[in-house]
Amino acid sequence: MKERQTTVLEALIVSSDSQVLEILGKTFVRLEISASTCDEVAAPELLEKYRFDVIVVDGKHDTATAKMLDQIRWSRSSRTSTVLALARSGSQVTELLKLGASLVITKPITYQLAWKTLQATLGVIEQERRSYFRHKLDADVNVSISDGKECVAKATNLSEGGMALKFCPSSPCVLHAGPGTFASIRFQLPSGMSDWVSAKASIAWVDFEGRAGLRFEIVDPDSKATMDSWRKANFTSDL
Length: 239
Hints:
The protein is an alpha/beta fold. The protein has helices spanning 18-30, 43-49, 62-74, 93-98, 111-120, 122-132, 172-175, 221-234; strands spanning 10-14, 34-38, 54-57, 82-87, 103-106, 135-145, 150-158, 162-166, 182-188, 196-206, 211-219.
């Protein structure tokens, strides 16, 4: 599978059941969703490396299904994806929803049921895609972490919910910050936009090379409007 950015919604079907693959394959084609398939062995690497809009989980047994749902829930790439779990019995439905499934269908599935279920939630899937979409960005960001240390980082992408930054590995924001650390950020967007964007954010993750992910916590209305306008103008150009 190649890395790509596209406006086409993408799905991953984790199943070795030929009937499931055939029915869901036809359903996704009709919904104009590009679908890839894999088995339980290949799924962990794909779920960690790529972001899918829809993930179908069809484990061979309860433990396998629960393990995949747990991985999706904690995955950096896939935790906001819409997850359709396939239950082997009606008694399993409630448990799968508790484990993080967005939707549950009891096997054996039919084309009509798969179509009805996925078509009904298509609007939510599309909205989540727009919210998650990461726009390429090259801008300096002033960062002040909660203990008063300040530094400058380079923004590499921007989404509705946060942004990715690249710090110097020896930066105090890398040496003294970790997941959950709060920060104040301030930056200007390119393409001639002169307004400054200010926000309160929390560090979602940071690695030893200085790469970090920030999650927006508080954004003032003017800054939100500026980012919304910039993302809308750049949605197509990033693809």
